[in-house]
Design a protein that fits this description.
Elements lengths: L27 H11 L3 E4 L1 H14 L4 E5 L6 H9 L3 E4 L2 H9 L7 E5 L4 H13 L4 E4 L2 H9 L5 E7 L20 E2 L3 H11 L1 E6 L11 H20 L6 E3 L17 H12 L5 E4 L3 H4 L3 E12 L4 E5 L8 H5 L5 E3 L10 E7 L8 E9 L6 E4 L20 E4 L4 E3 L4 H4 L1 H16 L1
Parallel strand pairs: 1-17, 2-3, 2-10, 3-4, 4-5, 5-6, 6-7, 6-8, 8-9, 9-10, 12-14
Antiparallel strand pairs: 1-11, 11-12, 11-16, 13-16, 14-15, 17-18
The structure holds pyridoxal-5'-phosphate (PLP).
The site of pyridoxal-5'-phosphate has 17 residues, from helix 10.
Length: about 425
């Protein structure tokens, strides 16, 4: 997609809004009213903020192809919004490819990144490619290339390399150096040559991990430098490299006092480390596009004075927002119930969910106003990997998600939904019995 097609890339009026939206910036009355109308736990999402984030990225990387990593927030409205802002869609599964195409995104703006792809995913994506021949697939192993060839695929194929460097806010999100991802730099030229012969070679790709911050810029720089070198080596061998995709991982400030990522600095470092290439730079931000466009609302149902902390029991937990349990992630917490009323003491509050797991905490001993039963809490930066990682563990229905204007993005699951798949099995059995 050319820069001209991206409205946000116009350098005169990017309209990218502030560099970050903090939890305190959300309007209390609006959140209160949404919780009253839709119940809790409730994800609230602001597509207008998504547009601003897209425009700031476009302004910082005016010549790059920007692909939104859909797995951060896959709601149809989000995919449409980011595509409308000129971003392509990077998909991590056949399901995400389906979502992107269902949202009306044309195949030329869809990339499927295949990581140890199950046969079902390859079957479905190759099937989709027959109707959308401009779709791009990224393969990270010679095996994957073989399996695509076996299915008759000879379309746009990008090679994921393992640059030997990674980065991230937690060891579980560092992908760049892990052997699971991509082919080693030493083996890349041979495989790229094969792809160039048998497919439409669509360039090279790597992704360091998630959470690039000022501190992690050195790793990012090194990854980009190695990709730039590989691109020049391939071109010297007569293999044109259409795209050098350096992945996502642009960090957001989860802590209230953490500075916003300086996109211009990241962009300068990226361009400098990349050096001169024939092809085009691509980036794949996910979190950066959607994190501060979402908050999670949850209501306090139990207050308990324990010796070491005040426990606020709430109706959201690790099944609603997994990041604190999985990554020890910090999310800002705001007690909306304590705002506007009488002053409350500040105490150490542990916000705990309804699941019988010690990890089921949204924060631990955080200085907050003394909570009261019925208080509405807002959890910040919940737009990325929030709803997406929600599960039905403990047979807990997944929450609803609405826009700030009260439009439903995803309806609340019900108790009937929880046992729906079991019920299907019962009806199969009945069908079998009828057949015999
Ligand atoms: C997850 C992922 C991204 C996006 O990561 P963010 O931290 O959300 O920016 C980009 N590319 C690939 C291949 C990914 O797996």
């Amino acid at each position: 997609m050319s820069t001209d097609e991206r409205p946000g890339a116009a350098s005169d009026a990017p309209d990218g809004g502030p560099a970050v939206r903090r939890l305190d910036d959300w309007d209390r009355d609006t959140l209160d009213a949404l919780a009253d109308e839709h119940g809790t736990p409730l994800y609230v999402f602001d597509p207008a903020r998504v547009r601003e984030n897209c425009r700031r990225l476009g302004a910082a990387f005016p010549d790059a192809e920007i692909q939104y990593a859909a797995k951060a927030h896959t709601a149809r409205e989000t995919l449409r919004t980011v595509h409308d802002e000129g971003l392509a869609i990077e998909c991590a599964s056949a399901g995400e490819v389906r979502r992107a195409l269902d949202a009306g995104v044309p195949g030329r703006d869809v990339t499927y990144t295949a990581v140890n792809p199950p046969a079902r995913d390859l079957d479905a994506v190759v099937e989709a490619w027959r109707n959308e021949p401009d779709l791009t697939i990224t393969a990270g192993a010679a095996d994957t290339v073989d399996r695509l060839a076996e299915r008759g695929f000879d379309g746009r194929l990008r090679l994921r390399v393992n640059p030997g460097v990674g980065a991230g806010h937690h060891e579980k999100v560092v992908t760049g150096g892990h052997p699971k991802f991509g082919v080693g730099l030493d083996r890349a030229p041979e495989l790229a040559a094969r792809i160039d012969r048998e497919f439409a070679f669509a360039g090279i790709h790597a992704h360091a991990g998630s959470g690039i911050s000022g501190d992690d810029l050195e790793n990012h720089r090194e990854l980009v430098r190695r990709l730039g070198e590989l691109a020049r080596d391939l071109e010297a061998d007569g293999i044109p490299v259409e795209t050098v995709d350096v992945g996502g991982g642009f960090g957001v400030p989860y802590r209230e006092d953490a500075p916003a990522l300086d996109l211009a600095t990241v962009a300068d470092a990226t361009r400098e480390a990349l050096g001169a290439i024939e092809g085009r730079l691509a980036i794949e931000p996910g979190r950066y596009v959607v994190a501060d466009a979402g908050v999670l609302l949850t209501r306090v149902n139990t207050v308990k004075d324990a010796p070491s902390t005040v426990v606020a029991g709430v109706d959201a937990g690790m099944t609603t927002l997994l990041r604190p349990a999985m990554y020890d992630a910090y999310h800002a917490v705001r007690d909306l119930g304590a705002e506007g009323g009488e002053n409350r003491d500040t105490v150490g509050v542990t916000v705990a969910g309804p699941v019988c797991e010690t990890a089921d905490l949204l924060c631990e001993n955080r200085p907050l106003p003394a909570p009261e039963r019925g208080d509405l809490l807002a959890i910040g930066n919940a737009g990325a990997y929030g709803y997406e990682m929600a599960s039905t563990y403990n047979s807990r229905p997944r929450p609803a998600e609405v826009t700030v204007d009260g439009e439903t993005l995803r309806r609340r699951e019900t108790l009937a939904d929880v046992s729906r798949l079991d019920a299907a099995r019962d009806s199969n059995r009945r069908n079998d019995e009828e057949d015999t």
